[in-house]
Amino acid sequence: MVETEARQLPQDELAARVTTDRQSPWFSGHFPDNPILPGIAQLKMVADLIVASREDDLCLSGLSRIKFRKIVRPGELLDIHATFVQIKKHYTFRITSGNDEVCSGIMLFAKKTKI
After folding, report:
1. Residue positions annotated with a catalytic role
2. Domain coordinates of the chain in residue numbers?
3. Which pTM was predicted?
């Protein structure tokens, strides 16, 4: 993926614009002659955005209410929006492509523990 824009918004909101790179290894086996971006890649983009925005050392600890609504093709422009919900200590997120919702859900994070 090639991140074209990321910015911190007010009130614990994050946004980024990402272009799905046609040469990304995510597309190499998913699926031959009909490449689509796997759901796990979409979730990784959101998690990476959230972790990069934080000063503390976090790791993804859970997912809830994940919905995949649209197939993502190589070269597609995606907008990611995530909001920290203070009361429940989680992030809600949404990925869109144009006016279409691609993916949405809730991500939970925990501080990394040192072993």
Report:
1. 30
2. 2-111
3. 0.87
DSSP codes, the chain: -EEEEEEEETTTEEEEEEE--TT-GGGTTS-TTS----HHHHHHHHHHHHHHH-SS-EEEEEEEEEEE-S---TT-EEEEEEEEETTTTEEEEEEEETTEEEEEEEEEEEEPPP-
Q: Which CATH number fits domain 2-111: 3.40.50.1240, 3.40.250.10, 3.10.129.10, 3.40.50.720?
A: 3.10.129.10
* 38-63 tens-digit pLDDT: 999 999 999 999 999 888 888 899 99
